[in-house]
Write a structure and sequence with these properties.
Helix content: 40-55%
Oligomer: single chain
Bound molecules: uridine-5'-diphosphate-glucuronic acid
Largest sheet: 8 strands, mixed
Number of strands: 14
Strand order of the largest sheet: 3-2-1-4-5-6-7-8
Number of helices: 16
Radius of gyration: 24 Å
Length: about 450
């Protein structure tokens, strides 16, 4: 149908998913036209500055824009008319009841459909945004047909293709994916997307399945719910380990993971899972199940265990420090995982809020996420510019994100800077150095026996 240098694609929504795709496709020599309703974002990208801190986007965007491989526009007509495929990468945030808000998807599809009314030739629309099962068939398809006045499968193509990107390695996850899922509304649309992907990955196509859009939508939600389940599962075992003399959750996880049917990934106990995707998609899957009359007991338990885990971290501090009113507590790490600046639904933010709610004075530090945290936490907490400043004169310190630099803290530092040396290690960053802690340092790690 085409060859790499002649593919032109438009990307609607230049957030974390859209921009990562723009960079990855441009690195594969595809001409990309980016569109977003946010003028500030467009301006930044036009200057080659990445609005997201995704490492490979930051690294490559400037040269890709300069070379003309990525171009941005405020004009959605231009975006559609100058390209063969439009990818919809807008957000689908949680509504109050946990279901997915589809307003941005509707708006993007309406814009594309309006332009397609006047466009000659076949144009493919691919939804990358995470949408609840049956949305592509029951919401997107009728809307696109209505607005464009054209028939899907004849003049216009439509597919849902879930993205499986992890923040921090998003561009790499597109360049070398573990699998690709094409959710096709009809065969012609599926063939068109398949051909594009064959060209993109040039003979090195990862495992790829073609299926209905509803299956593809479910694959996305089920994958994130499954990952969340593994984390909640190991956090459940971690709670038990804390009560059993001599138990260590990491040893248990390692032993479990050696069974290839189980595997070792996503079995790291911690403060609970966070981020924009796992909690949001789990909530949406719960709401979808309920809408169809099924009570998803297991999914609800995954969520409940996660919420409890964050409260449990605060209880661990209370167990050793007593009433937290007017105590000074340091929180190291605010991002929902190390290596990124994203604090959305971060366990650290919830833990901070619990601490503040119990009357503690909280000081926080994160190597990358302080600015984003300020937007969420405001003046509820004090912000430190180093981990040493953060722990100074505190009664307890909680390590919530496993940033490498935290490993540099020594028992000596704790004794020197802190008022009381209580260290709550939710990610077991210091577990290898436990022998360095004397009885003056009260060291408590999530998932490690609290009893001698
Ligand atoms: C997640 C999925 O991993 C991606 O496959 C998916 O594409 C993405 O959501 C999405 O839907 O867009 P991400 O949100 O970047 O990616 O985060 P993860 O790396 O999966 O981590 C999620 C949370 O689980 C973090 O808070 C992390 O600390 C926690 N986690 C993860 C654990 O506590 N233990 C583990 O063993 C693994």
């Amino acid at each position: 149908m085409n060859n790499l240098s002649t593919w032109k694609v438009s990307i609607f929504g230049l957030g974390y998913v859209g921009l990562s795709h723009a960079v990855a496709y441009a690195l594969k020599n595809i001409r990309v036209v980016g569109f977003d309703v946010d003028g500030e974002k467009i301006e930044l990208v036009r200057k080659g500055v990445s609005p997201i801190k995704e490492p490979d986007a930051v690294k490559h965007l400037g040269s890709l824009v300069k070379d003309g491989k990525i171009r941005v526009t405020e004009n959605y007509r231009d975006a559609v008319l100058s390209t063969d495929i439009s990818f919809v990468c807008v957000n689908t945030p949680s509504l109050q009841d946990g279901s997915a808000d589809l307003s941005q998807v509707r708006s993007a599809i309406s814009m594309i459909g309006e332009v397609l009314r006047d466009k000659e030739g076949f144009h493919l629309v691919v939804v990358n945004s995470t949408v609840p099962p049956s949305t592509t068939e029951n919401v997107v398809k009728p809307l696109l047909e209505d607005v464009s006045g054209k028939k899907i499968g004849e003049d216009v193509g439509l597919c849902f293709m879930p993205e499986f990107l992890r923040e921090g390695s998003a561009v790499q996850d597109i360049l070398s994916p573990w699998r690709i899922v094409i959710g096709e509304v009809d065969k012609k649309s599926g063939d068109a997307l398949h051909q594009f992907l064959l060209d993109v990955y040039r003979g090195k196509l990862p495992p790829l399945i073609r299926t209905s859009s509803v299956n593809a939508e479910l694959i996305k939600y089920a994958s994130n719910a499954f990952l969340a389940m593994r984390v909640s599962f190991i956090n459940t075992i971690a709670r038990l380990c804390e009560l059993l003399p001599g138990a260590n959750v990491d040893v248990v996880a390692h032993g479990m993971g050696l069974d290839p049917r189980i595997g070792t990934r996503y079995l790291k106990a911690g403060p609970g899972f966070g981020g924009i995707c796992l909690p949001k998609d789990l909530r949406a899957l719960i709401r979808t199940s309920e809408k169809f009359g099924y009570d998803p007991v297991l999914l609800k338990a995954i969520y409940k265990v996660n919420e409890e885990q964050m409260r449990h971290v605060v209880e661990l501090v209370e167990n050793v420090s007593g009433n937290l009113r007017n105590k000074d507590v340091a929180v190291l790490g605010l991002a929902f995982k190390a290596g990124i600046d994203d604090v959305r639904e971060s366990p650290a933010i919830k833990i901070v809020n619990y601490l503040v709610g119990r009357g503690a004075r909280v000081k926080v530090y994160d190597p990358l996420a302080i600015e984003n945290a300020k937007n969420v936490l405001g003046n509820k907490v004090m912000y430190a510019s180093s981990m040493y400043e953060c722990i100074r004169d505190c009664d307890a310190v909680i390590v919530v994100t496993d940033w490498k630099e935290f490993k540099r803290l020594t028992p000596e530092d704790l004794r020197r800077f802190m008022r009381k040396t209580v260290l709550i290690d939710t990610r077991r960053v210091f577990i290898d150095r436990i022998h360095e802690f004397d009885e003056k340092v009260m060291y408590i790690a999530v998932g490690i026996s609290l009893l001698p």
